[in-house]
Amino acid sequence: MAYIEGHARDQALLLPASVEDYVAADNPVRFIDAFVDDLDLGSAGFVRSRPKATGRPGYDPADMLKLYLYGYLNRVRSSRRLAAEAARNLELIWLLRGVRPDFRTIADFRRDNRAAFKAVFRAFVMLCRKLDLFGRELLAVDGTRLKAVNSRSRNFSRERLATYLAAVDARLDRYLAELDQIDRGEDAAGTGRGDTLATKIAKLREQRQASAALLGQLEDSGEGQISLTDPDARLMVAHSKVTVGYNAQVAVDAKHSLIVEQHVTNACNDMSLLAPTAGAAMDALGVERIDAVADMGYHSGDDIVACEAAGITPYIPRPHRGTAVGNGLFPKERFRYDPQADVYHCPGGQVLDIRYASVTRGHLSVQYSSPAACAGCQIKARCTKGRWRRINRGEHEAVIERMAARLAERPDILVIRKSTVEHPFGSIKQWMNQGAFLMRGLDKVRAEFSLTALAYNLRRAITLIGVPGLIRAVQA
């Protein structure tokens, strides 16, 4: 039995007469074409959105945007690969009508219009809102660390530079002492060793000068670290993994796991990021109040207060911080506060009253304790290893306790958070293969992630509505 065979390469074929016949009605490129044509690129901030009257004609920004949307939707982000696809991919040939920009033009378009891609993302969010794809009741907020174009070896902190300078000084002292011995004729190594040492000393002094300059630059700027390849990237730790990168924040609507708001920062943790992220998402959804759930990395009294002031009802589990929990002692939650008497009741049934108040980094903190009660307590060994137990109450403690009570009434909301916000991150990193940035600089990285988030939302909307339904919504 023979195999399935193709036709001869020199055989004349009756192919379809136009490229239009190769693109199906439900092909995503048809929606990309309709969506971009409906945008006001000038209002979005794209440069050269109106052609000049004189000079050599340039490429239409609409065509370049269509090319990038297609690329990010199909896991092709490199400008060189996009240039190659534009010449051989039938879908792109249809989408661009045969236009074939070179890779430099493609790369320059993304760089020059880095501030405009966020507006395109928001335009698609408005389309999803028009299609009622958002529940507009609950947001899940989270962040993920994405690798930058900067290796760990080219990232320096003050501690690392100080340690390196101390080690270099020790080596220089050792080499100089050995060189002195050679000069006095006390070393049998001869002149060859002296020349080698002189070369090493010169190289170490050069390296020391460069490191000292970096340390001085850090001290002048007030920053804690510096990256040489991408100056805006920072060393970050996530789930015991250390990488030099950025912190990408998203607010995801719980109805269909669609991203409502996204932005990228180089902050090394998520504290103080909930209120601005959820607030921007609330504005995009057009609601005055909304619930927002996040993990314990967002737990911050100032941020919780800001959320409630903005109409956001936060749900954040309280982290177990402090030495008591680490030592297996009673956590702070076991001490019940009485707002009427302004005292704490400890697990042993004793009353802890105010000892003193202090201000730390602009925040008021009141300490409660009872040395006399702790001295005769039967369960003191389970409560403290000191002479008595101290409980600090911050100025935002009432707001935090109110949030803890809400969370106790809705324990399932933490499960909803995982299934909602982890879906975009899993899709972006695994299915879309976009766990690292290609560009350098915070503004350019933000442009990249806007395209990434838009591609994710586009894929989700196609799954939910279909390409014909999306096209009808654009044309309505």
UniProtKB/TrEMBL annotation:
Superkingdom of source: Bacteria
Transposase DDE domain: residues covered: 346-460
Domain Transposase InsH N-terminal as annotated: residue spans: 19-111
Keywords attached to this entry: Plasmid
Coiled coil location: none
InterPro entries from the UniProt entry: IS1182_transpos (IPR047629), Tnp_DDE_dom (IPR025668), Transposase_InsH_N (IPR008490)
Cited PANTHER family: TRANSPOSASE, TRANSPOSASE DDE DOMAIN-CONTAINING PROTEIN
The protein's name in its UniProt record: IS1182 family transposase
Lineage summary: Bacteria, Pseudomonadati, Pseudomonadota, Alphaproteobacteria, Sphingomonadales
